[in-house]
Amino acid sequence: MPELPEAEVVRRGMARWASGARAGDLDVLDARSVRRSPGGAEALRERLSGAVLAEPARRGKFLWLPLEDADDAVVVHLGMSGQVRVDEPGAPDQRHLRLRLPVTAADGSDRELRFVDQRLFGGWWLDPVVVDPETGDAVPASAAHIALDPLHPDFDPDAVHRRLVRRRSTLKRALLDQTLVSGIGNIYADEALWAARLHPERPTQRMTRAQTRAVLGAVQDAMRRALAVGGTSFDALYVNVDGRSGYFARSLEAYGRTGQPCRRCAAEGRRTLIVREPFMGRASHRCPVCQPVPRRSPSR
């Protein structure tokens, strides 16, 4: 599913047309995309009709459309294949179009916010807004448990380290836990671990503060570089609101490069190939030289 950079690219794309826009009548082409909204399609349609939208917001991979001067918001969950598209009225419908929301933007122009979802794991729903006591941010109730992401201005690597070492887990598994740090998925975890020269199975309780800072700094760096080129697209399932793909896949060092030379080893005169290993029903990609298997702790 899209990770933080891809979700942020979509948020920015929506912001141009949604911020301050007045919503029209929601057209629900497939009720499965609003199945999680209280009251279903009719209640969501009634709440949105005539509402003024505030600037789209995000935490980690989680997107929502706040409603101006209101205590609720519309969660936009992309799932595995969800897309938000912005089109002119009358533009041809996309295949797998599920929802269509007409909006009149702040400049008076008309657009449609469209939700396209091939696999139907995503959806929109109405959610009450709560205040995060740690940051003061207004977030949907269903996102209140999600930790701050590495690009949030209040993100604290040392606080993450203190929670990390108390866990009896492994490093990559912890990085993917959205209650510890949000927004990281398989792609950016593999990239950060490669950059920090750390093995995915390193025990969390053996992490030093310097190692935690290194891997989180690598996450931040990879995400910022991905944002600059529109995120990572491997197929047509992830695109920006105008249908364009992101190009960060061209800059990946580990993820998806099975059997290709590790560029860092090549620069140091070695020929080492990136390997792919099973991980939680998915896969990890690493360099066997740069990211060696951690030594076992001596038994007591």
> What is the strand content?
15-25%
Structural class: alpha+beta
Outline: globular
Question: Architecture of the largest domain, CATH level 2?
Answer: Alpha-Beta Barrel
CATH class of the largest domain: Alpha Beta
Unreliable residue runs: none
**Tally of domains:** 2
Within the CATH hierarchy, at the fold level, what is the topology of the largest domain? N-terminal domain of MutM-like DNA repair proteins
Distance between the termini: 42 Å
Mean pLDDT, nearest integer? 94
Spell out the helices and strands N to C: HEEHEEEEEEEEHHHHHEE
Describe this protein's structure.
This protein is an alpha+beta fold and 300 residues long. The chain folds into two domains: 4-143, MutM-like, N-terminal (N-terminal domain of MutM-like DNA repair proteins), CATH 3.20.190.10; 157-286, Helicase, Ruva Protein, domain 3. Helix content is 25%, strand content 21%. Strands 1, 2, 6, 7 and 8 form a five-stranded antiparallel β-sheet that branches. The protein has a five-stranded antiparallel β-sheet with strand order 3-4-5-9-10, covered by helices on one side. Strands 11-12 form a two-stranded antiparallel sheet. Strand 4 (62-66) and strand 5 (72-77) form a beta hairpin. The radius of gyration is 21 Å and the shape is globular. It starts with a helix and ends in a 14-residue tail after the last strand. The mean pLDDT is 94.
